[in-house]
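Quick one: co-fold with pyridoxal-5'-phosphate.
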Amino acid sequence: MSHFWSPLVHSLTPYVPGEQPKLSNLVKLNTNENPYPPSPRAVAAMQQEIGEDGTTIRLYPDPNADHLKQAVADHFSEFCLAPEQVFVGNGSDEVLAHAFMALLKHDKPILLPDITYSFYPVYCGLYDIESLSIPLDEHFVIRVDDYNKENGGIIIANPNAPTGHLLPLGDIERLVTAHPQSVVVIDEAYIDFGGETAIALVNRYRNLLVIRTLSKSHALAGLRVGYAVGHAVLIEALERIKNSFNSYPLDRIAIAGAAAAMADKEYLEKTRHAVMATRATLVDNLRQLGFEVLPSAANFIFARHPAHDGSRLAAELRQRSVIVRHFKLPRIDQFLRITIGTDDQCNRLIAALKEVL
Ligand SMILES: Cc1ncc(COP(=O)(O)O)c(C=O)c1O
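Sure, here it is.
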């Protein structure tokens, strides 16, 4: 606390990111990174962008990142997107932040699940947006009919985090059609691990904004690239906020690497299927140890053990150099959120759990 702080700073409750430990030889299953490296084509494009002597880095990047917007539109060529329907930002967190300010700040509360990505309430605090939490049902499932209330916008992560639960595209469409006067934001950070993208719907519904990231399925969390797809009017709102805040959110290396990653669909297919296969084995192994595991369409699973306290399990795993995420929050404090690692990492997790149990 300080009298130098603005009243806003006094009132904030900032987001706490998952730990990025500096130790080596950890089994790091706490922040939903991809266990595989990014596309070799992305790595080559980044190296090429720097060049021999780094001279291009003297120059500012393209503030519109046109090359990347085109690569995103091309990636989804079956949905016939124009680059004007694409917004790009410094990680999807930044894209989400701009969406809160540009599209979700109205004079009615926004609706969001009671258990969801914990950054959403933080943006509400930062931008002074009133929100109403809609409880997940007893199976930790979002029921879209529960959202039939007056609102200034709706935000849902699909698959939801940290539960991993997937809403079918039909439910998303029902939500979007039930609220034609509000923007419905669908955060698809994890959709490549088992869902159908709502980008299929953006040319039919002017009020749908889909936000995605290259941090998970494209294995580029360290590069910080996210994007949004929607009607050009929604995208213009995001551009107006962005150009009032930071004209160059993506550097030259990020634009080059992300565009090449989006173009390498073959590599994406290979790695996302590897993660999904490991997930199936991990779920089986955890169930054999007595865990209740929620069905997951993400690169993580959410699991609890009926006989062992969640926070103790997380601490015991940590002592064995395995880091998973535990949230001290109502309804979910017995769960562990476990990122899908390589087969070897998941085997080390199971071995550690066998010791603990
Ligand atoms: C649901 C969800 N949305 C968005 C993000 C942010 O991703 P990034 O800022 O790395 O693009 C995360 C990160 O974990 C997430 O879980």
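If it helps, Residues 265-288 form the longest helix (24 residues).
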